[in-house]
Amino acid sequence: MNKPLRHVSLVVAVLFVLLFGSTTYIQVLQATSLNADPRNARTIYNEFGKDRGPIVVAGDAIASSTPSDDSYGYQRAYDPGAMYAPITGYYSVVYGFSGIEKSLNDTLSGDADALFYQRIADAVSGRPSQGATVELTIDPAAQKAAWDGLQGKRGAAVAIDPTTGQILAMVSAPSYDPNQLAGHSSKDVTAAWNSLNDDPAKPLTNRAIGGNLYPPGSTFKLVVAAAALNSGKYTKDSVIPGPGMYTLPNSSSVMNNHSGGGQEPCGPDDQSSMQSALEQSCNTSFALLGTEVGEEDLTKTAEDFGFGRKLSIPMGVTPSTIGSDLDGAQIATSSIGQYEDRVTPLQMAMVASAIDNDGVLLQPQLVKSVRTSDLQEVTPYSSKKLSQPLSAANSSQMRDMMVATVQDGTGTAAAIDGVEVGGKTGTAQWGDGREPHAWFVGYANAGDKKVVVAVVVEEGGYGAEAAAPIARDVMEAVVTG
Known about the structure:
The protein has 19 helices and 21 strands. The chain has 481 residues and is of the alpha+beta class. A hairpin with a 2-residue loop joins strand 1 (55-57) and strand 2 (60-67). The model is unreliable at 40-45 (pLDDT under 50).
């Protein structure tokens, strides 16, 4: 072979190697990033061309896919949309997904490892592939009661079965219609998205598990009371001080005994039992009790209830927090649910859940089961213990105090005839010149039917007036339904 031919052969060989290398790099090494690139239309069409599995509540699909006559293949629909939107989230060709649609995307699309054999069976039989069905733990009656109670308000409600950890209701208000984001018109979806994001009420935020967390106000006194019982130095009948006014340690600031500037003492001679102090929601009693218990024990009890813990239900939950490295004044203020205390309604429902379940806290969960297209169960729900913040004996004392609060104290609006109901109201200060947030945290037991609930109404004023009636309706829907 002459020299020019050898040169040509060498150039061809080099070009072949470069072509082979570049093709391999693009098809293998860059495959993941190219598939994830939002500009890749083929990936988008492939994703939305799948027959996505439904999300189901009590046998009814609240999110489902139907064939569409456009290039996307299927259209996602939500019914009823807004009531369940904080749970289902949205599935959008423009903005991706959120909620259960995001956290269980592989399951709903059929790509999860647990569905491998189902995919093989579909391929062998020639059946069209379909994503799995996700069945939620939601009780539709409880969900509707919470939804109705929060109409026209900003806030959230969570209900849990304390014996299983299953979430029976989760409502965030105001909400939005996910159908507006699931459309296939990019123009219409973008307009809806911009409108929702520009709304100062933040309807896309799931207030039940995230967003800007709330000061818990006097509902946090449940945690302080639990810490006091855990110390072994107190019972529900222990006499504790409760003056009408309390000058905070190393401070000139004065704490009034009741919200609104009330200066009446909690009882004769400026003292009362712990149970009576909880009934009346005495600020000074629990500020003094919290400083006596101390930051270390108070923090440990809060953590045992779930504070600071990263949870997946399977959606991610923002951890609730209390302050750290506190001085005396800060401990006192934290003990009445102010200062740096910030919580989700789910967290406060978890506090009530442990109290009503003999001190055992179970993992909250929204998913009851996952089933294939032929209804075979792939992933059943199983209860999981998270911690035990209280002994059974101390949780019984906590229930006694909470029942007294509903029967004779600030929580009477939550009472249900013939049902054991315990609770704690809260009025959480959060900004100068603003109405406080209204809280109610409690439980209801009627035989083997049990439910715990946490309700917050933003700028609702007194928990006894704004939150307790909503909580009553939710609890009643579960235990008398």
